[in-house]
Amino acid sequence: MPTTTASQVVLKLKRLFARFGCPDQVVSDNGPQFACAEFREFAHEFDFQHITSSPHNPQGNGHAERGVQIAKRILKQKDPLLALMCYRSTPCPTTGVSPAELLMGRKIKTTLPTLESNLQPRWPDLRVVRSKDANEKRRQAFYNNRRHSTKPLPPLKPGDAILSKLDHQNTWGTPAVVAGDSTTPRSYIVETHQGATLRRNRRHLLGMPALSGDTSPPALQHPQPEPTVPQADPAISTDTALPVVQACPPPAQDGRLFMWSGRLSKPVEKDK
């Protein structure tokens, strides 16, 4: 693609749809080529649901991010087309079938020698493939959550007071109010005190506890008397109230030195 404008993206997607058919959903980020009127009209014309990930949350579009890494690694090879053929014919470790088998129902012939019987059409059992894929995703999610000590966050309701913070910010410093749920999972529409309407992921929002109007904190209902500090008697002089500290006794005339307690200090004899 020479450019990433909406017209070029729509043209590339039309070519894919003409070969493989129209999908039910298309997941993308919030780039300008996807968040424009031209792409919305294209989604309405080809009857698919366009889902965008939460802003400032690239993990919500992890499949596309991983696909970009695979494509970059293929393009770095000496022969990208040969590398693409090898990728399409390599069985997935989780499901045991290759992308070509899932698409065409047979293995494709590559530069590696193989038997003719291996190239015969043989559709894999899709129920087994989907079950293996789901089990592997659950296993990876379990170990990832255990490694990072993640926990499910409670849902927010419209009208809840929250604080917003992005990943590059250090403190929760943007107060806002939840306006409602977004069309995508774990995403909310919030309104800041300045009147701006933003879309944020749930992990970027921190709920604030609100006090109801008919109740008051216990400290306000039953105030405790503050302890009084005893005042000093003005008749008592400050000089007599404080203990008198004696100064260090001066050395004697014969050179002897006494300690604070009055004990005679004996000098240490050095080795000769």
Task: Please give the largest β-sheet.
Answer: 5 strands, antiparallel
Regions with pLDDT < 50 over 5+ consecutive residues? Answer: 211-223, 232-242
Oligomerization category of the chains in this entry: single chain
- Over the alpha carbons, how many angstroms does the gyration radius reach? 38 Å
3D shape:
extended
Protein name: Integrase catalytic domain-containing protein
InterPro entries: Integrase_cat-core, Retrovirus_Pol_polyprotein, RNaseH-like_sf, RNaseH_sf
GO molecular function, one term: nucleic acid binding
Pfam family, one: rve
What does this protein look like?
It is a single chain. Strand 5 and strand 6 form a beta hairpin. The strands form three sheets. The protein has a five-stranded antiparallel β-sheet with strand order 6-5-4-3-7, with no helix packed on it. A two-stranded parallel sheet has the order 1-2. Strands 8-9 form a two-stranded antiparallel sheet. It is an alpha+beta fold and 272 residues long. The chain is extended. About 9% of the residues have low confidence. Among the domains are: 62 residues, no CATH class; 47 residues. The longest helix has 23 residues. It contains eight helices and nine strands.
